[in-house]
Amino acid sequence: RQVLFDLGAIEKLISGLEDYQNLDQFVEIQEIDAKKIMLAAWAQVKKRALEHGIRASFPEKCPAVLFHPKAFFYIFSHLFSNAVRAVMDSDDPLIEVGVVNRPKKIEFFVRDNGIGVPISMQDRIFDLFYKERKNNDGGAGLGLAIAKKAVLAHGGQIWVIPRGNGAEFRFSIPKQFAAASNNDTIAGKSL
């Protein structure tokens, strides 16, 4: 018998496992420009998003935060990749990114109007190798586990809010990791 492997998928899996393992090394935090890193992560999926007519909105401003820049990038990279896959078949695909400054924490969110996440999968979706959809959608079941590990390493929390049409992924970091404060929701701006 001949067994064919998708070398690209195997390389992606190995790279993802290395990213997951190496997150423990991202202990040096620094003040980062959250919006700049969000947009850099979006640039990785922007071409695919445009090919599918996906609109995206981002906050006009974000507070500076104390975080490891590569870990922050990983979080948004994986949230954006999942959101793009989730909305590709929507009639009017939209991804909204925002930040809410709360009294003791800062919450970032990525909201989409895609296929959503069943309530029964809310906890499991962040497990290593977990894939809600068993099709070959390009995911290896690592992205949300990587995002979770990065957020937890910085003292935060990550969760999903199922919506009637789509899903909203949120993560928070303690205010001690914020370099600025403001108790308002920072509105999104379409790009």
Structural notes for this entry:
There is one protein chain. This protein is of the alpha+beta class. It has 4 helices and 9 strands. The chain is globular. A hairpin with a 2-residue loop joins strand 6 and strand 7. The model is unreliable at 180-191 (pLDDT under 50). Helix 2 packs parallel to helix 3 (69-87) and helix 3 packs antiparallel against helix 4 (143-153). Strands 2, 4, 5, 6, 7, 8 and 9 form a 7-stranded mixed beta sheet that branches. The chain has a two-stranded antiparallel sheet with strand order 1-3. It has helices at 7-22, 34-51, 69-87, 143-153, and strands at residues 30-32, 55-59, 65-67, 94-101, 105-112, 157-163, 166-174, 185-186, 188-190.
Features:
single chain, globular, alpha+beta, 7-stranded mixed beta sheet
How would you summarize what this structure contains?
This protein is an alpha+beta fold and 191 residues long. The chain has helices at residues 7-22, 34-51, 69-87, 143-153, and strands at 30-32, 55-59, 65-67, 94-101, 105-112, 157-163, 166-174, 185-186, 188-190. Strand 4 (94-101) and strand 5 form a beta hairpin.
What does the secondary structure layout of this molecule look like, with pairings?
Blueprint lengths: L6 H16 L7 E3 L1 H18 L3 E5 L5 E3 L1 H19 L6 E8 L3 E8 L30 H11 L3 E7 L2 E9 L10 E2 L1 E3 L1
Parallel strand pairs: 2-4
Antiparallel strand pairs: 1-3, 2-9, 4-5, 4-8, 5-7, 6-7
